[in-house]
Amino acid sequence: MSGASELVDHLFRHEAGRMTSSLVGILGLHNVDLAEDIVQETLCVALERWRFGRRPDRPAAWLMQVAKNRAIDHIRKERNHRKFEPALTRQLESEWALVYTVENHLAGEVQDSLLRMVFACCDPQLGARAQIVLVLKLLCGFSTTEIAHALLSTKAAVEKQVSRGKETLRTATLVDIAGAETLTSRLAGAQAALYLLFNEGYHSAHPEHTVREDLCFEAMRLTKLLAEHPRLPSPASRALLGLMCFHASRLPGRRDAAGDLVLLADQDRQAWDAALIEQGVQWLGRATEGDSLSRYHLEAAISAAHCFAPSFEATDWVKIRGLYDALVTFFPSPVGFLNRAIAIGQADGPQAGLDALAAVDARTLAKYPFFHAARAEMLARGGQHAEAEQALRRAVDVARTPAESRLLQRKLDGLGG
Predict the structure, then answer these.
(1) Which one, of 165, 162, 276, 270, lies nearest residue 216 by Cα?
(2) Domain that holds residue 2
(3) Residue 283 in domain
(4) Distance between CA atoms of 269 and 249, rounded to whole angstroms?
């Protein structure tokens, strides 16, 4: 039974966005709630049937077929209320036959529907935060609780943003991805949403999963659609994909045999994925074709420096410090200033790092455990062990997940040693 639940959860992460996007492309944005309901109903049916061992050979195709049938049923029921055009049932039947019967045509159709939905969610009327919320909710299968964790918000606030965002979508139209000029104002929002999706997988706020590779690779898949689309040339999209490749290459070293988090300094670098590092190099190289500079360029260069360092001690911290100097100058953020302070501490010594850390907005990061952990590390290196212990205790207190708590507690236990 648990196996069926895990399979449905896995498929939900990978297929919900495709299913919702394809249905919305046919039903219209004003029926986005109906599309979501159909997807949810389909997954519930799958869980009910598959837990007794009746799993199809091609579960993803099965989900699509069941969703199609339910959509047709809904259309037939609502036709008398004039919510749908009379010919829509035939259109739906032909669309799904095209997309899910002709295998070689599947990728292009689904990719276009996903891109259209991504950019629809990034309507400028919505605002940056609402755009991200809708992408995470409609395309990535995030619950409102997960979105609240990822955005350092509350469930109630996210629910309001989802509701208002859907209301805006209902009066909008799906974007034609052939009109690249129309998409310019929405591209940054799409990139930001996918960046956040990757980060939620890499630094999971889920209480049971320290790292969620499925979310990381889903973000990479969607970002690759942006980076490769011929009418959406964007150095920032390519840099973002390069950044994701560099980060993803280190996923095999982020957990130990027990599933606990492992700090960068303690990771087995031989376990890192060399093929993904090479892909990161290629995408970052393509991102330099042009004269634009984004935060993703700088962050990718920082991540590359970590990937190519033979050891933590041999890392080129002077180079990384310089990259963070540029990052916070052009794209300031509290976490960016924190990471810059850490790089300064490694390049110029713990006191210099503490001085830089003192300039960080501590109020914004008061509940961010790694702010306190970074401070503890510099204090301990400077011989201030009592203060370091106090900072680490604060880090443990504000840990967001059991995995973070265990990691920080191990640091605290080893402080005296």
Answers:
(1) 276
(2) 1-101
(3) no
(4) 10
Query: Which of 394, 354, 387, 353 shows the shortest CA–CA distance to 372?
Result: 394
Tokens 């499925």 belong to residue: 214
Residue 244: CA count within 13 A, CB half-sphere:
30
Cα–Cα dist 150/213, whole Å: 16
50 lies in some domain: yes
Half-sphere exposure (Cβ direction) of 197: Cα atoms closer than 13 Å: 33
Q: How many domains does the chain have?
A: 1
Residue 353 lies in a domain: no
Rg (the chain; Cα; Å)? 23
For the stretch 124-167, pLDDT in tens is 788 778 888 888 888 777 778 878 876 767 899 999 998 888 88
Alpha helices in 155-212 (DSSP H): 155-170, 180-202
The answer to the question of residue 111 being in a domain is no
> How far apart are the C-alpha atoms of 343 and 353, rounded to whole Å?
7
Provide the sign of the torsion angle of the four alpha carbons 74, 78, 83, 86, taken in this order.
positive
Task: Name the pTM for this structure.
Answer: 0.75
